[in-house]
């Protein structure tokens, strides 16, 4: 059961990351992940820093990695409604930068 939930969450997150890449082509690229661990590249370091701060101000903790990647590493307890919360906040942040 746990593996099925994890798989569904991964598929939903991956689909949404793909849609976000299409919606913000100059901002996001190379979405990737395995399980609930996901990452996406941002166009540049200053923009990535803005996204990290804006997401944090909205209650979402993301991590920077390398020169321009954002990592998403959810808490141990992470359910489907958490995916929706995260994606809504992340898309709000991206829309503010568009």
Automatic annotation (TrEMBL):
<feature type="region of interest" description="Disordered">
    <location>
        <begin position="1"/>
        <end position="24"/>
    </location>
</feature>
<dbReference type="InterPro" id="IPR015422">
    <property type="entry name" value="PyrdxlP-dep_Trfase_small"/>
</dbReference>
<dbReference type="InterPro" id="IPR005814">
    <property type="entry name" value="Aminotrans_3"/>
</dbReference>
<keyword id="KW-0032">Aminotransferase</keyword>
<protein>
    <recommendedName>
        <fullName>4-aminobutyrate aminotransferase</fullName>
    </recommendedName>
</protein>
<dbReference type="GO" id="GO:0008483">
    <property type="term" value="F:transaminase activity"/>
</dbReference>
<keyword id="KW-0808">Transferase</keyword>
<dbReference type="GO" id="GO:0005739">
    <property type="term" value="C:mitochondrion"/>
</dbReference>
<comment type="similarity">
    <text>Belongs to the class-III pyridoxal-phosphate-dependent aminotransferase family.</text>
</comment>
<dbReference type="Pfam" id="PF00202">
    <property type="entry name" value="Aminotran_3"/>
</dbReference>
<dbReference type="InterPro" id="IPR015424">
    <property type="entry name" value="PyrdxlP-dep_Trfase"/>
</dbReference>
<dbReference type="GO" id="GO:0030170">
    <property type="term" value="F:pyridoxal phosphate binding"/>
</dbReference>
<dbReference type="GO" id="GO:0009450">
    <property type="term" value="P:gamma-aminobutyric acid catabolic process"/>
</dbReference>
<feature type="compositionally biased region" description="Basic and acidic residues">
    <location>
        <begin position="1"/>
        <end position="22"/>
    </location>
</feature>
């Amino acid at each position: 059961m746990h593996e099925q939930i994890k798989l569904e969450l991964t598929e939903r997150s991956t689909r949404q990351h793909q849609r976000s890449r299409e919606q913000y082509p100059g901002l996001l690229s190379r979405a990737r992940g395995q399980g609930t661990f996901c990452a996406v590249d941002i166009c540049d370091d200053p923009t990535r820093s803005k996204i990290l701060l804006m997401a944090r101000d909205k209650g979402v903790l993301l991590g920077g990695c390398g020169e321009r990647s954002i990592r998403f590493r959810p808490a141990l307890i992470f359910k489907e409604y958490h995916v929706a919360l995260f994606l809504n906040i992340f898309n709000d942040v991206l829309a503010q930068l568009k």
